[in-house]
Amino acid sequence: MNVTVSADRNIVIPLDDLVGTFRSFGPAGPTYEVLNVIEPATGSNILLQVRVVESRELLDYPLAQAMLDPLAL
Fold this sequence. Notes:
The protein is built from two helices and six strands; from the N terminus they run E-E-H-E-E-E-E-H. The chain has a four-stranded antiparallel beta sheet. The protein has a two-stranded antiparallel sheet with strand order 1-2.
């Protein structure tokens, strides 16, 4: 399944490449795991369900922000 973002630009993101990845909130923030896409997965305001590794807290997190966050090492 792909997510397509359409507004002033088109981006196609294969979910298989995003779900299961570990990223950090900004360059020095805590690590989180991308669990899944929250339905409906259309438009430019797509949300992801993520789990903060340290606290195990579940959050709804914007896809657009996650794409800016670096992969965790």
